[in-house]
Amino acid sequence: ITLPNTITKISNSAFYGCTSLTSIVLPNSITKISDYAFYNCTSLTSIELPNTITKIGKYAFYNCTSLTSIVLPNTITEIGEYAFSNCTSLTSITLPNTNIKIGKDAFKCKNKNKKGKVIKYGKYECIEKNKSCAICLENFKNEDEIFVLECFYNHFYHNSCVVEKINKCPICRKEIEEIEEFRYIKIIYGE
To answer: Is residue 77 pLDDT above 80, yes or no?
Structure first.
């Protein structure tokens, strides 16, 4: 679908539950994607966000399980709570180098892979600027490769800080076999 330049926002629930929608091109006139706009569009694989978008509402892309990547433009100032939650195929998020208000669990996702499966270069909502490694305490930087243990508090480490196979989370001491999932991810910040 290609939308005309006369549209300035995607209204609440505009494409809610459109399970056959696979892609959409938004015009440069769009400044806001409202709440629930693409909620449960399970076949949506791609969306190109124009450099005019300033706000993405809550649950805007919730459960878009085929969406694989998202590039957020430099104009974005706010992402609502749960905006990209449960997007289980989302493996790449590019954030701009600007201040963005990110709502609760905006990128939260429980991957459906089996216990202990490694997910290469995925994204996770807690990887944000000024977050640091739980072992060396250095802030993560662009292109850092991170190891995540989804234990009590989702602990994050540089891959290089976890130098040997571990059987417990070094911070909370929870046994690895009790942890539902671990993964490798890569941070990508925009220009």
So the answer is: yes
